[in-house]
Amino acid sequence: xxxxIVISKTGGTEVLEWRExxxxxxxxxxxxxxxxxxxxxxIDVYFRSGVYPAPNGLPxxxxxxxxxxxxxxxEGVSGLAIGDRVAYVGPLGAYxxxxxxxxxxxxxxxxxxGLDTAAAMMLKGMTAEYLLCxxxxxxxxxxxxxxxxxxGVGLIAGQWAKSxxxxxxxxxxxxEKAELARGHGYDHVINYxxxxxxxxxxDLTGGRGVDVVYDSVGKDTYPGSLDCLRPRGLWAAxxxxxxxxxxxxxxxxxxxxxxxxxxxxxxxYNAARADLEKSAAALFAAxxxxxxxxxxxxxxxxxxxxxxxxxxxxxATTGATVLVP
Length: 325
Description:
This protein is an alpha/beta fold. The protein folds into 2 domains: 2-122 and 275-324, Alpha-Beta Complex (Quinone Oxidoreductase, Chain A, domain 1); 140-263, Rossmann fold. It is 30% helix and 26% strand. It has helices spanning 42-49, 115-135, 152-163, 175-182, 197-204, 224-227, 251-255, 266-269, 273-289, 305-313, and strands at 2-6, 17-21, 30-39, 65-73, 85-89, 98-102, 106-108, 143-146, 167-172, 188-191, 210-215, 229-237, 260-262, 296-301, 320-324. It is globular, with a radius of gyration of 20 Å. The model has no long low-confidence stretch (mean pLDDT 96).
């Protein structure tokens, strides 16, 4: 019997219960893995609190990201062997010592990448990849704005965008986080607690605005994010850590410069196996080249997931965090 964090009802951090949880044997097309590390992401909070409904109801084991070794293979699985080092972004269930996962979501981890590093970077790194390379293909000469620049996605995106030749602007909530962002590719960092980020962006761009805003904050940055864009710029709203935007007036896009808006999701962008493989390969290549450094800033025991969630929601974390079984 393996242990896992189980949620029987949605709510605060108190609903995260560490207990024995059956794993079972892998069925056709499935693999049983032992986790070495599990990634902590804000989407985990959404499922815990009920902002996102559990796709298969309650109880649920949260977590979409992990890395470990293959223990057993189900019928029909090819290209993997027992003992392989693997990582994934996949269906809920990562907050566990062991789990069964579809083979289709697994990618092999290169020998020069630690499994804890893989667990820390798959969701955040492939999110950065699809945002920067596919949602809006950042190129040399572009100017971008990335909210939550000192977060897990933000630190990866800042480095990656800089390597693509962009001018990178980020927002943060403290001077400590500003220093961290500056060390990860950001040319300009705005502390939104002491500065008007819209006015500062306009000043930095000579009144033009940025080509794209990547926004995982939501309520607190809307509609300011739209005011930071150049005419026909793109607002990519990929999260809502400060709360949902309660109403969205489509006519604002016309009023503020014939803007584009999108609500992308990694699970759509990487739904096809070919896209997943390309995304993971691009991430591993960016890390191998040195263009992107992955730094684990916090580690918690998986049993202490409630503490990790409290720190994440309290904005007491920076960069990547892993939970260790």
